[in-house]
Amino acid sequence: MYSRSAGQVKGLRVNATGRGHRTQAERRAQTRTALLDATIECLVELGYPRTSMQEICARAGVSKGAFQHHFAAKSELMAAAVEHLTTRLQQQRIPEAEQLPAGPERVAAAIDLLWESYSGTLATAAMELWIAARTDPELRAAMRPIDRALGRKTLERLTALSGDLPRDKVETLFWLTVNLTRGLALDAELGGDPRRRKQLLEEWKRIAMLHVAG
């Protein structure tokens, strides 16, 4: 359920090879994607302190000058990389979200979906950045609006999938689940017991279903 392997990160890359002719817009999009993917790889494999622009550009196969055409600062790239990864993971989960079961089981299934989305590679990369952002005002300013926008977008999607559940209940369950899963992801980073994480997640699903039923 939780992995920091480089293979998992690289597996998220979009295969853009095999096309003979691309427009300028397509080339720009491919370069941007390569930079964002390389940034996530570096954050997961090396951590934020060792993630240099030189390393990112080398992995992306992009010159420093080309990087500057896409991002004005390192902090902007870092925030965009988290948004890029979150959006891609959410897109991968769309088919699963549309097949959530009916009734109280829908709540438990949605919690599992959020855990899968907010843990793993995303949790590792985001955690590296938020820790750095504590003492880096520029990075914090770049990350905060991205984090809030992604939270609102995810909440809106879950609200649309929640059927007849009152919005206030959906919102409360969502933010409680997000903060729980972030804590569990940190526990995984620190080498906590995976059985304990599973037990806590199962207990939260039980409480959440009772809250909805009430």
TrEMBL record:
<dbReference type="InterPro" id="IPR001647">
    <property type="entry name" value="HTH_TetR"/>
</dbReference>
<keyword id="KW-0805">Transcription regulation</keyword>
<keyword id="KW-0238">DNA-binding</keyword>
<dbReference type="InterPro" id="IPR009057">
    <property type="entry name" value="Homeodomain-like_sf"/>
</dbReference>
<feature type="DNA-binding region" description="H-T-H motif">
    <location>
        <begin position="52"/>
        <end position="71"/>
    </location>
</feature>
<feature type="domain" description="HTH tetR-type">
    <location>
        <begin position="29"/>
        <end position="89"/>
    </location>
</feature>
<protein>
    <submittedName>
        <fullName>TetR/AcrR family transcriptional regulator</fullName>
    </submittedName>
</protein>
<dbReference type="Pfam" id="PF00440">
    <property type="entry name" value="TetR_N"/>
</dbReference>
<keyword id="KW-0804">Transcription</keyword>
<feature type="region of interest" description="Disordered">
    <location>
        <begin position="1"/>
        <end position="25"/>
    </location>
</feature>
